[in-house]
Amino acid sequence: MIRGGSWFDPAKYCLSxxxxxxxxxxxxxxxxxxxxxxxxxx
Length: 42
What we know:
This protein has 42 residues and is low in regular secondary structure. Helix content is 0%, strand content 10%.
């Protein structure tokens, strides 16, 4: 299961609730993951 959208998708699909179903092993140049971290600059 793929969640969210990509920069190729219309805005209505760029939600974490959006799900796409691909077979295991599917490779696409627009599939990946994003890391996020909070940084406190104090």
